[in-house]
Design goal:
It comes from Actinacidiphila rubida. This protein has 158 residues and is mainly beta. The chain has 2 domains: 35 residues, no CATH class; 113 residues, Electron Transport, Fmn-binding Protein, Chain A (Pnp Oxidase, Chain A), CATH 2.30.110. 11% of the residues lie in helices and 38% in strands. It contains 2 helices and 6 strands. Strands 1-2-3-6-5-4 form a 6-stranded antiparallel beta barrel. The two termini are 35 Å apart. The N terminus is likely disordered.
């Protein structure tokens, strides 16, 4: 019997695409057949430029996850900046001081009939950046800057 839940080590475990995971013990748990991408595709860039809101997942010092809606800005160097009001006083700011590994998901429902979802997940290392910036004046001078190490996109093809 094929399961869709459980751990990747279970016999018959299938990935979201319905293919069997790799058995080579790669860092990604064997789920991805191509190497991770660290640069956005043109389709991902076009999609992200249309969006305003994403969800930033961080982990606190105790290992507990936190996920918050955030505004984001694409950088020319391939990074992503996260801005907010009083960012320096936020839990996400404190969380990345202890664990800089984050995930930003930007997604939406493109169509209900037929059902079509699309989005981009950006996994990366975050750093705290302080000082003046060229973004909106209502944002605090503290930004979270993400340097991607894995980028996944889905549903972006026409």
């Amino acid at each position: 019997m094929t399961t869709t839940h459980g751990t990747p080590d279970e016999p018959g475990r299938r990935t979201a695409t319905g293919t069997e995971p790799r058995q080579d013990g790669g860092q990604d748990g064997g789920r991805h057949r191509t190497p991770p991408r660290t640069a956005f595709t043109e389709a991902e860039l076009a999609y992200l430029r249309e969006q305003r809101l994403g969800r930033l997942a961080t982990v606190d010092r105790g290992g507990r996850p936190q996920n918050n809606p955030v505004g984001f800005f694409l950088r020319d160097d391939g990074g992503v900046d996260i801005g907010g009001w009083q960012m320096g006083a936020s839990r996400k700011w404190r969380n990345i001081a202890g664990n800089p590994h984050v995930s930003l998901v930007v997604d939406d429902i493109a169509s209900v009939t037929p059902w079509k979802v699309r989005g981009v997940e950006i996994r990366g290392v975050a750093e705290q950046v302080e000082g003046p910036h060229a973004y909106a004046s209502y944002l605090s001078e503290q930004l979270i800057r993400i340097r991607p190490y894995k980028i996944f996109g889905w549903g972006l093809e026409d």
